[in-house]
Model the fold of this input.
Amino acid sequence: MTDLDLDELATELADFAAPEKKGGRSARAERIIAGFEEIQRFVEKHGRAPQHGEDREIFERLYAVRLDRLRALEECRSLLAPLDKQGLFAGAATVPAAVVETMDDEELLAELEGAEGATDITELRHVRTAADKRAAEEIANREKCEDFDRFKPLFEQVQRELANGMRETRPFRDDATIEKGHWFILGGQKAYIAEEGEEFVADYGRKDRRLRVIFDNGTESTMLKRSVERALQKDDAGRRIIDPVAGPLFAGEVEPDDLPSGTIYVLRSKSDDPAVARHRDVLHKIGVTGGDVKTRVANAKLDPTFLLADVEIIATYKLANINRTKLENLIHRIFDPARLDIEIKDRFGNPVVPREWFLVPLFVIDDVVQKIQDGTITRFRYDPKSAALIESSRS
Done:
């Protein structure tokens, strides 16, 4: 928290002052005393002054904030010193703008107002930290994302992966990481952490950094990491979208779409289409079947999925107890950056866009299958520029 402007705080306190009561104290003074007496009752009960820290109960933290603010204001010290039987203001004249949890002056008055006449700490009302207010304001103060075209395909892919089970959403936990490349649901919208700034030390010695957050409605916001965390914690529907995982591809439990045994097949097209012939050595169709591969491709030249041409079986990989849908989705997601973009006409002249053909070398497909089998595939992504799997920088 920045240094307190005591004169400004005193002025704002005065703005809330009601006409003095007959006893000689203003309503404002009565509120301050009532708030201080609550702190005194805490000290009597626990034998110590309230302390800051995330491991402390919320009301102890509120009392600690309140005490620091009362100590910092000369007017409050003068008013409360005669009542300070526990020595809470000892040495308070030199108390700096402490490294405390943020509470602005308006919130301090609101809390003191809630303390007047209170008999129990649960009667504190409407206390909201400035950090919470900042988090809400940062989310509300979004602006148009000028380069949303870059991110739109990512949002579409994540939606597909949620729909087909490759990704899942889970409640946001305090120990969940928030960093570049992570996905969340915040305020009912998918949110993507697109960029992160340099780490710095913020108030109370905590580390923080600025994040560029893109939302699925084409807006963005530059938010502090801790603001994102607070917003997710306070959003009852806040979720984190977990990274794609292989899932129970080779699990012991049988699922409805599991196959007792199956085959990953890799095909090469014999089509004379120039777009196909030009890349024939690295253009492969990758699929999964529970039956015989030769039977599967027998009528390839009649099927637009096979580019209406005969195919050559390049490689097969036998697997046991696999979930066909999840396996195909996983393989296709990995090679999505190298997916062939081609449109052909079926036998009736209707346009068809085959989706299972990829410009990827056979040795990389071998590598992917191996990493699927040993469970390490989630640590890698395919880089079409180098035509190789590279280890992802994301955790």
